[in-house]
Amino acid sequence: MDGSTMGELRSGRQSALVPVLVSLGMLVAVVSSLGAPLVPTIAAEEHVSLNDAQWSLTVTLLVGAVVTPVMGRLGDGPRRRKVIIGALVAVLTGCVLAALPLGFGTLVTGRALQGLGLGLTPLAIATARDALLPERSRPAVALLSITTVAGVGLGYPVTGLIAQSFGLHAGFWFGAAAAAAALVAAAVVLPPSPRRAAARLDVPGAILLGAALAGLLLALSEAETWGWHSVRLLTLAGTSALLLGIWAAHELRTTQPLVDLRLTKDRTVLTAHVTALMAGVGMYLLLSLVTRFVQTPRAAGYGFGASVALTGLVLLPFSIASVAAGRVVPLLARRATNALVLPLGCLISLAAALAFALAHDRLWELFTIMAVAGFGVGWMFAVMPGLIMGSVPAHETGSAMSYNQVLRYVGYSTGSVLSATILQAHTSVGRSLPTSDGYRTAALLACGVWAAMILVTSMLPSRRGQGGNEPASTGPAPTSRVPGEDVTRVVR
To answer: Which option is the CATH number for 3-201+258-491: 2.160.20.60, 1.20.1250.20, 2.30.140.10, 2.120.10.30?
Structure first.
């Protein structure tokens, strides 16, 4: 093969890189879409309670929360390509397991393997920063950050229609086909891993973090069954909190931590991480409520008795609006301070949660609420990569974005479990469906989350976004940098 042919091949792969990276983000959305809308169907076909069926969603998010920082640390060095390919193989295997009619236990196991795919987005962002020129990496990173959010509303109708038309397991076969396509594309197009020294994996840190997160989520999920004041619940929650404290102390002491918590001393980075966590809680509280509400039979006195496919369509405005937010945020970021941009996104999300608490008797109201919610969440997720990447060295991009992503997944898991717990608390003995007050209570809790986040994000350094077309930093962050000054670099 002559030099010109090799050059054309490299150019073709470079052109295909962004679509392939976006396909990884969309795969994360497909994996997520196999959860919430299918929970009632899984409960009916596998003969388990709705609370147990909720674990088909929660276990995926939990595994994602545990493995994402591990994948991020491994992916910051010469093993990035192998980590991405390995995660895709795991997702494909998990989809096949869940697609086979082998019982609820096998389905949950498959969903757990699919959770490894949730660690792909930070690695895709790190790849875009390393492999693309600044003028291409900035919009690519912003797009990747909202792809998983936008893909929720796109993936739900497709998987819902497939499950409704061909059965529950057909939806997982669709996931397997998407994973296989992404695997082939990644194997062909992904560039070589960056030539950096391989970091030693912090195994104790990974074990401590995984045990702590698993314990906290188990405590949340079983709180209603065990009792909020039971010794078992309090012991588990206390032990998990203690493990988190030990993990944090360990991360601050070790020379090669799983997550470099020292970076969170920057107020901008810390705010982005707290926002990711709480936004995840608020987002999945509302998504879980809406998907269960619209499928509730009208005989319950509320709900619409909607099919899985229609449930997915209700979430379609969420995706469309989140993409629209990604277009609007750069325009505002050029003119407004950091202390204004994120609080506005939180305010929009608060409006959506409050609207659901007060008005959900008509289907068009839910379509409108989902559009407002998608705009608010997409707004915030488009901003956060710029906050982080403008504040950390390039060689820490994968780890820092993975930590931000893991906080999203912890938030997603917590929001999912909280919605199920609150609805269970409003389900009378001998009844299978909660009262409508349960939905209102959970929505008001989401309002409280967003109200708190308005206060937190308003404390960002009031630095106006820099104008011009300066590239995102590809080297160590300069010591003279003002925290938060680069919010617009990535979102433009």
So the answer is: 1.20.1250.20
